[in-house]
Design goal:
alpha/beta, 2 domains, Rossmann fold, binds NADPH dihydro-nicotinamide-adenine-dinucleotide phosphate, 7 strands, 49% helix, 8 helices
Length: 264
């Protein structure tokens, strides 16, 4: 099926590994040119090289920490310089937290607010004018099932991801008149380097191997009984980016193997 995405330009934050990288590959496979960013320059450059070689699209890799306004500005500068703007924005960069509300200081709240919410606000504000000129655009925010169904050990993550879901809805209402579709995705358990890092820490505390911890987690939580691969999730993002999803507006979609325990 031709998804009608050839020669579009997508900006993906956190595109150097995990879910962001899988989305980058999925879009590149449809002929989309990319700007990807991450904090580690070597990882970003390696990821860009791999995608260019494999898919023959243009990829600009930018070292940028999306919690820093000056880095957001240089990312946007590169988008304009290399491609004259963008058609698609995927706000994906993010990570889990670990704290108790009664112990976490303000700076931890502030950091995750910048990472999960303000990065999406700032990049949307900067890139929407280009989309308006092109008379169409797509923005997808990658939140989490934790925005609706919190995990006990990461209240700051749960809260800031919930804010990202609401931001998506509000932005959608504001820009659909410009033919810009904003949606949000709430993934469940996706096997990425972030989980492998968590598993080695928590597994050690519980006296089990990282693999045992991840297996237990999937069996106990997701009715499907396993993690998804990043590629399985990326298929859904690619569809949402495409004109085939033309009536998908202002929604939050769960891709979670059945983990969400309520009907929404
Ligand atoms: P990974 O840690 O595997 O990858 C994260 C990516 O984001 C990397 O490219 C990383 O590069 C980049 N990144 C992290 N912080 C920043 C920053 N401040 N500025 C720019 N780039 C940054 O994570 P996942 O792929 O697992 O997660 C991606 C998103 O999906 C996150 O928002 C996460 O909350 C969400 N999610 C993940 C789930 C899962 O099960 N994996 C489930 C639900 C939601 P670098 O470190 O070099 O900056």
């Amino acid at each position: 099926m031709d998804l009608g995405l050839r020669d579009k330009v997508a900006v993906i934050t956190g595109g150097s590994r995990g879910i962001g990288y899988a989305i980058a590959e999925g879009l590149a496979g449809e002929g989309v040119h990319l700007v990807i960013c991450g904090r580690n320059e070597e990882d970003v450059n390696n990821a860009s090289e791999r995608i260019m070689k494999q898919y023959g699209v243009r990829v600009s890799g930018v070292k940028a920490d999306v919690t820093r306004i000056e880095d957001i500005n240089s990312l946007v500068f590169r988008v304009e310089k290399d491609f004259g703007g963008a058609d698609i924005l995927i706000n994906n960069a993010g990570t889990g937290s670990a704290e108790k509300i009664m112990e976490a200081a303000d700076d931890r709240w502030q950091y995750y607010w910048e990472l999960h919410v303000m990065a999406a606000v700032r990049l949307s504000r900067a890139l929407i004018p280009f989309m308006r000129k092109r008379k169409e655009g797509v923005i997808i925010n990658n939140a989490s099932i934790c925005a609706k169904q919190p995990l006990d050990y990461e209240p700051i993550y749960n809260t800031t991801k919930a804010a990202l879901v609401m931001f998506s809805k509000c932005l959608s209402n504001e820009v659909i008149k410009d033919n810009i579709r904003v949606n949000c995705v709430n993934p469940g358990l996706i096997m990425t380097p972030d989980w492998k890092k968590t598993a080695s820490l928590v597994g050690k505390e519980k006296g089990i191997t990282p693999e045992e911890y991840l297996e237990q987690l999937a069996v106990e939580n997701a009715p499907i009984g396993r993690f998804a691969t990043p590629g399985e999730l990326a298929h859904f993002f690619v569809f949402l980016c495409s004109p085939r999803a033309s009536y998908c507006v202002g929604s939050t979609y769960y891709v979670d193997g059945g983990w969400l325990r309520v009907v929404v």
